[in-house]
Specification:
The protein is an alpha+beta fold. The protein folds into 2 domains: 106 residues, Beta Barrel (OB fold (Dihydrolipoamide Acetyltransferase, E2P)), CATH 2.40.50; 308 residues, BirA Bifunctional Protein, domain 2, CATH 3.30.930.10. The protein has 14 helices and 17 strands. The strands form 3 sheets. The protein has an 8-stranded mixed beta sheet, sandwiched between helices. The chain has a 5-stranded mixed beta barrel with strand order 2-3-4-6-5. Strands 8-10-9 form a 3-stranded antiparallel beta sheet, with no helix packed on it. It is globular. The structure holds 4-amino-1,4-dioxobutan-2-aminium adenosine-5'-monophosphate (4AD) and magnesium ion. The site of 4-amino-1,4-dioxobutan-2-aminium adenosine-5'-monophosphate (4AD) has 20 residues, from strand 12, strand 16, strand 17 and helix 14.
């Protein structure tokens, strides 16, 4: 028997051929003479309509086949008479694989809240919305690898357990094999990490950048794509405690090359999903439009999801300096009327998401690249500008998201790097290996980090980051 996925059967032109299809029942309608089963196997957004006319099968469908049950159907593929679908399957045999008790099965063919589905994350893959999101997540991941491979980058795996905590990107989770109820202590009463697994304090990484830099200073063009962990207590719709990051690092490259690379990557992956996953994107675009009808007009997106993604592909991003952005924000009506939760008064403040979104959504109506941030709000490794006050940082801001990318040209000059580390109390002995790359054959180089979930959020139009990773981790949440 021709075993086939729903994605492939809907593309098939083998009419009047018998196929064997398996999936979960999304919906069913049964009458005395005919039953319709909407079957989905997650291979694509469409359901396959199964037509049941045989009287024995009808009894079986009526008695056994509930919504959520898994079944196997053998039947003949025919052209559909209905408008909703092009093909349907006339059932010859139906086998119940796994029964779902309709009294108990949580996923019913009605609207569930996203919060309800988050609590049922083990079953939410079966819904239209979440199967679409996770197909797009796959597509984006594939497109990222394809982009880098096409551009002759090498994929590098950087450590997940690390002893370096110098990046300053956020609070770290500690990794230990010590019995935490019986910790060995030093004379001074501190934990004796000498006795721990690595004979040193260890953490989960917040970024693969420092190691990616080492690789770039030999392989020239590399990228990492792995999980990163931050223990900050930020309960927002854009933060996770465990998230995936894409971090390219390029030798012989300055901040403008870096912006070009980031821009090309974003455009490439956006184009890839529009070209290959238009059914899922269209569904999510309609979903978002419906969702936004319940919020205030001024908070709604100015474009639908499809146009928002297309805009990324078509437009030139706006590049401005931190100082220019600061002036715009400071002089904005919104700031003067005290409408920002965090007022913009003094040069040197870190921008909040409300400021970033103001620039992107109200001021420019375009993606914005901000460069040359004050050195005091950025990491030690960013290259110092001539003004001695700002560094060659670049953040890319998107509508609905705020910061999607953070990166910089790196400090490749040994003396500048050491001075900055001293100022920021970063012990040289912790990062001796990083410093040595500046001693031997140092070169200008740049890189950035693209938050993968923020990218998936942008492309799927989901307002909460917890809905774009299968099993989100955030404060007090480690179920599944
Ligand atoms: O700006 P960040 O902290 O930069 C770095 O970690 C650098 N080492 C990157 C580099 O230059 N190689 O983080 C980069 C991106 C952010 O722009 C954001 O998209 C995402 O990672 N991000 C988060 N995403 C989800 N949850 C969090 N808690 C995140 N923190 C950062
Ligand atoms: Mg950042």
């Amino acid at each position: 028997m021709n075993k086939i996925s729903i994605q492939n059967i809907l593309k098939s032109s083998s009419l009047n051929t018998d196929f064997s299809v398996s999936g979960w029942v999304r919906n069913k309608r049964v009458s005395k003479k005919i039953a319709f089963i909407m079957l989905n196997d997650g291979s694509c957004i469409q359901d396959l309509q199964i037509i049941v006319e045989d009287s024995n099968l009808l009894v079986q469908v009526f008695k056994q086949i509930s919504i959520g049950s898994s079944i196997n159907v053998i039947g003949k593929l025919i052209q559909s008479a209905g408008k909703e679908q092009s093909f349907e399957l006339i059932a010859k045999e139906i086998k119940l694989i796994g029964y779902a008790d309709p009294e108990k099965y949580p996923i019913q063919p009605k609207k569930h809240t996203l919060d309800f589905l988050r609590k049922n994350a083990h079953l939410r893959f079966r819904t239209k919305t979440f199967s679409s999101i996770f197909r797009i997540r796959h597509a984006l991941s594939f497109a990222v690898h394809q982009f880098f491979n096409n551009n002759n980058f090498y994929y590098i795996n950087t450590p997940i357990i690390t002893s370096a905590d110098a990046e300053g990107a956020g609070e770290m989770f500690k990794v230990t094999s010590l019995d935490i109820n019986k910790l060995p202590l030093t004379d001074k009463g501190l934990v004796d990490y000498e006795k721990d697994f690595f004979s040193k304090q260890a953490n989960l990484t917040v970024s693969g950048q420092l190691e990616a830099e080492l690789a770039a200073l030999g392989l020239s063009k590399v990228y990492t794509f792995g999980p990163t962990f931050r223990a900050e207590n930020s309960n927002t719709s854009r933060h996770l405690a465990e998230f995936w990051m894409i971090e390219p690092e390029v030798a012989f490259s300055d901040i403008y090359d870096n912006i070009d690379l980031a821009t090309s990557l974003l455009k490439y992956v956006a184009k890839y999903v529009l070209e290959n996953y238009i059914d899922d994107i269209t569904f999510l675009s309609d979903r978002k439009e419906k969702e936004e009808q319940s919020i205030k007009k001024e908070d709604r997106s100015s474009k639908n999801l499809l146009d928002t993604i297309q805009h990324i592909i078509d437009t030139d991003f706006t590049t401005i300096t931190y100082t220019e952005a600061f002036k715009i924000l400071k002089n904005s009506k919104k700031n003067k009327k005290n409408k920002f939760q965090f007022p913009v008064n003094e040069w040197g403040i870190d921008f909040q998401s409300e400021h970033e979104r103001f620039l992107v959504e109200k001021e420019f109506n375009n993606p914005v690249v901000i460069i040359d941030y004050p050195k005091d709000i950025k990491a030690f490794y960013m290259r110092l500008n001539e003004d001695n006050k700002t560094v060659r940082a670049m953040d890319i801001l998107f509508s609905g998201i705020g910061e999607i990318i953070g990166g910089s040209q790196r400090e490749e000059r040994l003396d500048f790097l050491k001075k900055r580390m001293q100022e920021m109390y970063i012990p040289e002995k912790e990062l001796w290996w990083y410093i040595e790359t500046r001693c031997y054959g140092t070169v200008p180089h740049s890189g950035f980090g693209l938050g993968f979930e923020r990218l998936v959020q942008f492309i799927t139009g989901m307002s909460n980051i917890r809905d774009v990773i299968p099993f989100p981790r955030y404060p007090s949440q480690i179920e599944f």
